[in-house]
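Subject: sequence -> structure tokens, single chain

Hey, anyone have a minute? Need the predicted structure for the following. Not urgent.
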Amino acid sequence: MKTLKQKSIIAKVAPSVVGSLIYALSASTVLGDDVEIYLQEPPDPPAPNVLFVLDESGSMASGSPSRRNRLVEAMHAIIDDDDFDGINAALLGYTTNTGDNGPLDLRALSGDFKLIGGSEASFNAQVDTIRNRSYTPTVKALEAAVNWFRRDVTFTDSYNRTMTSPIDGDPEDNWCRPNHIVLLSDGEPNSNSPTYGQGYGLTSWMGTTCASDSLSRWTNGRCAREIARWAFTTDLETGAGWEETQNITTHTIGFDISATSNTGKFLASLTGPFSGGGESYSVSSAYADGLKNAFISILDDALENIPYTYTAPVIPFNSDNAAISGDRIYIPLFVPSATTSWQGNLKAYNIAVVDGDVVLRDATGGPVVNAAYEFISSQDLWASSADGGEVLVGGAAELMGASGARNLYTNIDAGLPLSNSANRAGRTNTSITNLMMGVASDDERFALLDWITWDYTPVDAEDEDHEGVMGAPFHSQPAVVNYSTGDVVYLPTSEGVLEAIDAESGAELWAFMPKDLLGNIAALKTNIGSTIPYYGIDGPLTAYETASGAKMLIFGMRRGGQKYYLLNVTDRLNPVLESEISDSDSNFSLLGQTWSKPLFVKMEIGAAEREVLVFGGGYDEDQDDASSRVVDDEGNVIYVVDASTGDKLLTISSSGGDITVPDMTNSIPSDVKTIDLDGDALVDRIYAADVAGRIIRIDLAAGTGGIVADINAGSGSYRRFFNAPQVGYYSKGGAQFLALLIGTGNRADPLDNSIRVT
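Reply:
Had a minute. Here:
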């Protein structure tokens, strides 16, 4: 239990940091690289608390079948669904006794909270007693629901039945239970005017003066938003042992109510990040399925926020993944999440030498890590204050959206710079179609493009929470490119964009989202519960400068896809997409998921010295389920391409390539190792390793290659290579030779500690 919802600092640091820091890093445990490290299902997850607040007004008799009958049918369906046995639930019916100004009629239908599993008969019997009686005192019902959760007040229903808060006084097994209110209504808030002492609408609540506007339905719904916002932003338990925030998330369901009606807007205003924190649903159907599906979505969210919220302990520096320029270090970070979209950050610190040791210092000169090399509260160079040890506070992420809409580019017209208006992502670019975005209407396309570009108006201000959001750099390493006008830090992220960050200020200069990923923006915005994140652009990034002075970037997608993108960034504000290397191109038909980091080297090809990029063919995802050696049809190749254009120069494969290695039948997700044997600054030999446990050697001058090691041959086991072999130069007895060093492991399933036997 104590590991649930812990704040984790996931960080990465460059291998070039020296002294005692690098010594400590080299001694750290090497962690696997996939999400199962961060998200694991607990053996006995706690039950979320869900209070159903159900409209019993007279209008629930409307419809055929009636709304009341459809509600009863939908409630029976979720109660009898085994998936929701782990919900700790209660039912609160609300209406008035007689007429508009009659006394409140709030009924704790089911009594105190209890698990649905094992209490189905009791819940179903109480559901059958739901009525359709009088008016709709929504504000008082919401207030009563919040009071039911509070332990500092006592909630008594209209029949003098006192209810007990589901937030038990013992924090041991209760501090990490989510609390949810599901408020269902079929009409505008009304009833119980202040002259009758019932407070509809209220003028103030908990010391806050309430708004009276069109969203509150004038006085009738006044204070509803304040109640929902207080419940969502207030920690109900602050004593010893109560970790995190014990708040209440409010969801609303408008039953036979249009989302664009005044009542629909009122109910929606009670949800979202600036109010009750939950989701708003508008259900209009002659059948119970629509209402049932809304309930299921809410309950799934409540459950999925529990089983997969384990996170790793605070993680020390990883010596593989940061960038250093001068006396600065740029560190990517991310936060695990039980949803589709994970968030991250990029922070800058100073490197200093203290008593002969290399240390990291923040903007105030204070330390960044503790003695265990774990991050502590500090102020990065781009922040105005200390971050409190929070990943998403400060850094480049906090600056995003601060200056308005972003410069988000895509590749609609490959013949023009990405900064050209034809490639600008936004609602004014008519070349971005509904089909490209995966939506049915212009309004949906506009809403998604406004959201991803931080281009907001007061009408859609509820989406402003996306400002300050940066995708997670799961496996990506930043690269610093030096310019006379100011350095730029480049970083691919799971948002599906390549970030270009000003190294001095931390502000985003521009971002590039390939057009193939525009259709995934809707999933990012919806951000449903998931154990598998959206990977976006999660591959390796290589920055280099050609002999002609061109500044270049190439980056892959890793789990996000089977492409590399080659950009010319000589002008730091006007990038140009030079090439898209894709498996859909017949020249790269064997390309798998692009895990391998391209190496910028020089080779002799066709009797000419060429600047090239060399990379492995990538990962074949069929290997996810492989338990023995099988032949891969993707990734079992090494490509050599022109470093300026991306044009293919050499293919090394099992058949049909420029160099043939018959046993090269498995994918190569790792980087390759290049060797200059004669010291002429040209690569003579390539070593690579595949997922079937083989090491491959290519002799370029001879145009030959072969398998120099196969650790699975004759062993009956299936061990894998996901890293490039390291090469050591040795001399013994006057003879010089090379030694290869490599470790096995399954990066696609890092928690699997077995050796698979064939």
